[in-house]
Design the sequence.
């Protein structure tokens, strides 16, 4: 069985199909098939106009606004660990759509190598989601059992008008934030006798360094094209679109490996 519609011969149609698929297993399959088709040269570098403002969502999990989410403790018992893995699985689920929305919405403004990078990201986000959902099932839960955060698409909506704003906020702020906190979470799972989840999160951590590096690479590509200074342009975009402010401590070595040097975030913590 194939998840790609028969007319999905262009990048735009294949990427939009992922965003439009609500059921997690089907979204994952569509992501994998679209990526495989791109790598095999089966998709033309063409795009479509009507990209959905919000991706299709499954019936479950129930989505709650940030203030309405039940409190999650530090994770000392199994249920607290499940709650944290569930929250991370939701982040990865939304990350699948963020990657394919990046391709569908902005791909036409970039060379084909942009698609190489974001198809890789999208396929990896699908893998991260699958690994976390598998952990939930091994622990007697599943993705959808608990409510999930409804604010994760806000940044995407807020930056849908400008590729440089999307790159500055989604990979370079939000995913970079993941680099700052993931290693402490890996240690916590290990200390709590859950090396399996620790291993999954460690793998995610290394993949995410690459995702952030693609964000920086293409952000700098746009800046070069528009003849703007990347560091000051980034600072302005962060001030406009990321109201929370950047919070240290930063994982300087991981950020540096992703091209996100101190010149970017110095002075706006
Ligand atoms: Fe991920
Ligand atoms: Fe990612």
Sequence:
């Amino acid at each position: 069985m194939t998840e790609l519609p028969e007319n999905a011969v262009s990048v735009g149609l294949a990427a939009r199909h992922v965003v439009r698929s609500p059921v997690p297993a089907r979204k994952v399959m569509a992501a994998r098939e679209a990526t495989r088709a791109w790598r095999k040269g089966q998709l033309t570098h063409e795009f479509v106009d009507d990209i959905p403002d919000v991706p299709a969502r499954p019936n479950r999990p129930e989505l709650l606004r940030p203030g309405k989410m039940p409190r999650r403790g530090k994770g000392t018992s199994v249920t607290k660990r499940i709650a944290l893995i569930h929250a991370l699985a939701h982040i990865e689920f939304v990350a699948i759509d963020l990657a394919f929305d990046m391709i569908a919405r902005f791909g036409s403004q970039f060379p084909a190598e942009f698609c190489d990078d974001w198809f890789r990201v999208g396929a990896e986000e699908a893998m991260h989601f699958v690994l976390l959902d598998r952990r939930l099932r091994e622990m007697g839960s599943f993705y959808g059992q608990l409510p999930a955060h409804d604010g994760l698409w806000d940044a995407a909506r807020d930056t849908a008008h400008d590729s440089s704003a999307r790159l500055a906020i989604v990979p370079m702020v939000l995913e970079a934030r993941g680099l700052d906190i993931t290693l402490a979470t890996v240690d916590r799972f290990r200390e709590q006798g859950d090396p399996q989840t620790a291993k999954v999160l460690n793998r995610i951590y290394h993949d995410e360094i690459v995702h952030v590096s693609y964000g920086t690479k293409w952000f700098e590509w746009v800046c070069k094209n528009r003849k703007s200074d990347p560091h000051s342009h980034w600072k302005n975009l962060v001030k406009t679109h990321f109201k929370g402010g950047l919070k240290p401590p930063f994982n300087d070595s991981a950020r540096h490996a992703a091209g996100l040097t101190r010149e970017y975030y110095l002075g706006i913590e």
